[in-house]
Design a protein that fits this description.
Two copies of one chain form a homodimer. Chain A is α/β, with parallel strands linked by helices. Chain A has one domain (3-187): Alpha-Beta Complex (Maf protein). Chain A is 32% helix and 30% strand. Chain A has helices at 10-17, 40-56, 86-96, 135-143, 169-173, 177-187; strands spanning 3-5, 23-25, 35-36, 65-75, 78-80, 100-113, 116-130, 162-166. In chain A, strands 1, 2, 4, 5, 6, 7 and 8 form a seven-stranded mixed beta sheet that branches. In chain A, helix 3 packs across helix 4. The termini of chain A are close together. At the A-B interface, strand 3, helix 2 and strand 7 of A face strand 3, helix 2 and strand 7 of B.
């Protein structure tokens, strides 16, 4: 099976590389529109499917498996997306400080079969507990620029933000490899 | 608010007309790809969102509300789509005869706000109990051609197939108007 990753994220590229030897990258361009009132796991499955299906419909994706993924951070039932600006990043990090939140990543694989395209769509959740961060620490971290393209304004790989996690680490980074492995096996591709 | 219906179905057009005075029709063209292992209500929300979002991304949809919908028929946990051919339609109708099944319609509305596009996505379920149909009745109904473009190979408006329903009738036809009304109110559009 030939593969396409429908994401521009260098972190997802690295993680998928652990599962699949070779793949092309064609980032989905569609707008990410969150839906009112959906449970977070369904929300990320929906967004992942939008991405995978958009890329799977391109001529150059015919006959290939396309993987889309989407990650959100949920604190007290509220979804934290990517920060709008540095102030927004500081606000998010302050709200996460010293507390436990959930990270959801949805994964969707659209793949060709003899009966036409099929699709498998799942989600994983990891609980993440932050260290108590000082305002100075937060300002210094935001100044690195790393928070700006990340849901919840942080990357778990960025250092000393996180006290503990419960669940998959790769899920927090943006692609749950254990789940992806099970999905690939289930789909038989 | 100006509206677009992202469906070519004349039945949905008629039903939406009861709620919204005027709207354009731009059918979504994307492939309908069912996902393995999802609950039926999530399945139809996903498909409805794919349709609404595809059309909402077109230049001529900017600033308008776009409604997408998808209907599936579920018997014993198995999804019955549109029949492939007349034999498939006969097989579906025979399996529905004398029994109760569920009809799910998902509705997704993508709409503009000051903070960008938002979306609301819900689903309704109706239980439908069929009359016991003879093979001759089934053959005669399939010969009318009506089953061929309908999930589960029947239209509830087509006559004497159904003994009773529990839930919304418009949901079975393809657009649950009571649910749509609540969604429009919730979104404040």
């Amino acid at each position: 099976m030939e593969w396409i990753l429908a994401s521009a994220s260098p972190r997802r590229k690295e993680l998928l590389g652990a599962l699949v030897k070779q793949f092309d990258i064609i980032p989905a361009k569609g707008e990410e529109i969150l839906c009112t009132g959906l449970a977070p796991d369904e929300q990320v499955r929906l967004l992942a499917k939008n991405k995978a299906q958009e890329v799977a419909s391109l001529p150059q994706a015919q006959g290939k498996a396309v993987l889309g993924a989407d990650t959100i951070v949920v604190l007290d039932g509220e979804i934290l997306g990517k920060p709008k600006d540095e102030r927004d990043a500081e606000r998010m990090l302050l709200s996460l400080s010293g507390r436990t939140h959930e990270v959801y990543t949805g994964v969707c694989i659209v793949y060709p079969t003899e009966d036409g395209k099929k699709c498998i769509c799942e989600a994983d959740c990891t609980k993440v507990t932050f260290e108590t961060l000082s305002k100075a620490q937060i300002k210094a971290y935001v100044a690195t620029g790393s928070p700006m393209d990340k849901a919840g304004a942080y990357g778990i790989q960025d250092g000393n933000l996180v006290r503990s996690i419960e669940g998959s680490m790769s899920n927090v980074i943006g692609l749950p490899i254990e789940l992806c492995e099970r999905m690939i096996r289930k789909a038989g591709i």
